[in-house]
Amino acid sequence: MKLTSKTTVGEIVADDFKTAAIFTKFHIDFCCKGHRTIEEVCRKRDIEESVLIDHIEKARNSSANQSFDYKNWPADMIADYITKTHHRYVAEKAPVILEYLDKLCGVHGAIHPELHEIHTIFSKSFLDLTAHMKREELVVFPFIKKMKAAHSKGTELETPPFLSIETPIVTLKDDHITEGQRFIRIATLTNNYTPPVDSCSTYKVAFLMLEEFDKDLKKHIHLENNILFPKAIELEKTFEKVS
Fold first, then answer.
1. Could you give the CA distance from residue 233 to residue 213 in angstroms, rounded to a whole number?
2. Euclidean distance between CA atoms 9 and 158, whole angstroms
């Protein structure tokens, strides 16, 4: 769909739900007032049309599905990719989802009490994932990069803050199991992310974003458990042979 100043907010969100986050950022109601055009909302909020359209286009372009040969990437490159792609995704999307869940619980919570449990589970997930990602970014990933650099240069490896890279990996994989179980429960409570037939736009967008979050998290965990962590363990073993 080509964007023009006459395109309505509702049409844009219906075409790609990721754009809902952009309208939320600019405090534009895409639900009850989705009939308004870009021209109208920009005039109302004193926003340059070109600025809003640029943000919308970037959100839509980010939907493009890319396929990479991750298995042949070096460990340090995978760690950087996970940080810049999946960690950033969690940090940016989770607060938006929580905002939508807050609204749903306030408006529909009495009729759909499962929304409160979904909100509780997702809140805990975001809190734990934030701590999980910080451990990776401050401790585990930097050590993986040091191993890769030392291996490439043929130099000695610095003493790690743990006995073996496998020690923190065990904990991180346990975290992954917990998150997997949480999203199994969320999928059950949402009927596999299927909103009620008469649900509003916010309801639909929230469930779509939850489903996307679930899919991204599965890829995130796959890259760590099945590609990055095994590479890190094998890399560490090369130093054991040298010593």
1. 28
2. 54
Q: What is the pLDDT of residues 114-159, one digit of tens each?
A: 999 999 999 999 999 999 999 999 999 999 999 999 998 888 888 8
157 close to 146: Cβ distance less than 8 angstroms: yes
CA dist list (Å): 131 to 87, 124, 134: 11, 11, 5
What is the residue type of 174?
D
- Which token pair is 203? 């309801």
**pLDDT digit string, tens, across residues 47-89:** 999 999 999 999 888 755 455 778 889 999 999 999 999 999 9
Q: What share of the chain is helix, strand, coil (3-state, %, to 5)?
A: 75, 0, 25
Helix H, strand E, coil C: the string for 97-124 is HHHHHHHHHHHHCCCCCHHHHHHHHHHH
Question: Could you tell me the end-to-end alpha-carbon distance of the chain, in angstroms, rounded to an integer?
Answer: 60
Residues 188-217 have a mean pLDDT of: 93
The dihedrals phi and psi of 133, each to the nearest 5 degrees, come to -65, -35
The Cβ of residue 127 has, within 10 Å, a number of other Cβ atoms equal to 11
Q: Which residues does residue 37 pair with via DSSP β-bridges, in sequence order?
A: 8
Closest listed residue to residue 125, CA positions, set 194, 195, 214: 214
H or E element: which one contains 64?
none
Task: Please tell me whether residue 229 adopts helix, strand or coil conformation.
Answer: helix
Number of H helices, E strands in the chain: 11, 0
Q: CA 169 → CA 20, 115, 137, distances in Å?
A: 36, 33, 13
Whole-angstrom distance, CA of residue 142 vs CA of residue 148? 10
